[in-house]
Amino acid sequence: MKLTFHGAAGEVTGSSHIVTINGKNILLDCGLFQGKRKEAFEKNRHFLVDPKTIDVMLLSHAHMDHSGNVPTLVKHGFKGKIFCTDATADLCKIMLHDCARIQVHDIEFVNKKRARAGKNLFEPLYTPEDATNAIEHLFPQPYSKPFKIFDNVEVTFHDAGHIIGSAFTEINYSENGTTKKLMFTGDIGRRDIPILKDPVLIKDIDYLITESTYGDRTHPAAADAKAELKKVVDMICETKGKIIIPAFSVGRTQYLVYLLNQLYTEGQIRPIPIYVDSPLSSAATQVYSKHKECWDTGAVEFLINGQKPFNADNLHYTDSVQESMALNAMNGPMIIISASGMCEAGRILHHLQNNIDDPKNIVLIVGYMAENTLGRRIAEHRREVKIFGNYVYVRSKVVEIAALSAHADENEMLEYFNGCGASHIEHAFCVHGEKNALEHFSQSLLKAGMKNTHIPTPGQIFEL
Ligand SMILES: [Zn+2]
Ligand SMILES: [Zn+2]
Questions:
Q1: From the CA of 300, how far away is ligand 2's center (Å)?
Q2: Strand 167-175 to strand 178-184: parallel, antiparallel, or no bridges (unpaired)?
């Protein structure tokens, strides 16, 4: 067995690794690299191996840093099947199209500048048509049911508790007479986050590829999120301002909606209007509503008691640009949940531009912000940030609720792997993290009893 690390190696985004078993190449994820425009442009366009040589792909979940470059893969000649869960397939159908539209729009902007400078023009990374072609390769599989991808290679997806449809990938294979188990975590969820079930333990792992996003950090307990959210809503009722929440369309948006809905139902907060202002977030919420097989008992009980987790009288899903723009003229108190999660594109930019310089307002940070993103600069409490090319003063409050994270922190990941039997693991590969997190987490895994740990670099190959 051979492991080749491509993306999210020594960094967070662009998840992509190749497992070669009995001469067959299995691609784990094909995510978008997100960061500086120029670097992203290069990395997303150039694969380290020829996509035609990949036989099968296994997709852990629908977040763009895991699935976002699938259309490029197909465009460059990948012909195989892409296995994922049902909910992941449904999410990809909407998310890849959305991403394609952003790609086309982005490149138009770049090309306008280049045309003026007399430079050659670029093609978009992929188009909506490429996204449609990619979606045809998706083959949904249920959780916990093994399926064979080649002779002597069997795969099982298990609930990872990170976003709806997110999976741990278990690969059982035999090669030259020995049988081994490889686990790829994708992103590891947390126990007790709203809506989703807890991450499923996998026993007897020999080789592990694990995310390390918060490998050097501790989050407040997931259960604290609700009380913190109540505090922020109470604050905005005082100032009569707006809470602007940049939130990933998938996962974070639905947690927020559900928690706010619970707080209203329990009479803990005033029913101020909430606007989910992102067509993608609205569409993703429908996928959350549909896939009740992924819900935890709390969400099911909420439904049984006659409440819908994602619907309420004061909750509005805005669709058109006009509706979105109308929010500017409205008076608070109100809550606007918009995307993109790291403030790199989408309607959130307009809301930040219109509201970030007003001390009445609150920008609420609820998720991971990658380096070199606008979201990161806001989370770092910079006095001034650049939005649409212009500097704007940050006068609104910036509040962070880390308890809403959908990623397990260091202790939660260690607890998870102890439950799996850490001392059984011969080799663990730490990916999907910034330098400090990777180094710290790799040491922690050794202390937890794993025999060898590695921090692969892009293009690095391990023969096991
Ligand atoms: Zn994720
Ligand atoms: Zn990720």
A1: 27
A2: antiparallel
Indicate if 169 and 249 belong to the same structural domain: no
51: domain range? 2-217+406-463
- Residue 159, SS3 per DSSP: strand
CA 215 to ligand 2 centroid distance, Å: 13
Single pTM value for the model: 0.91
Do residues 317 and 253 touch, judged by C-beta distance below 8 A?
A: no
Read off the pLDDT of residues 18-68 as tens digits, 9 standing for 90 and up: 999 999 999 999 999 987 778 888 899 988 889 999 999 999 999 999 999
Count of the separate structural domains present in the chain? 2
Residues 211 and 235 in one domain: no
Separation between Cα atoms, residue 19 and residue 155, nearest integer Å? 13
- Cα of 61 vs centre of ligand 2, distance in Å, is 9
Strands (E), 86-194: 138-141, 147-150, 153-159, 167-175, 178-184
**Ligand index nearest the alpha carbon of residue 406:** 1
CA of 154 to the centre of ligand 2 (A): 24
Ligand 1 centre from 106 Cα, in Å?
Answer: 23
Residues, CB-to-ion distance under 5 Å, ligand 2: 65, 187
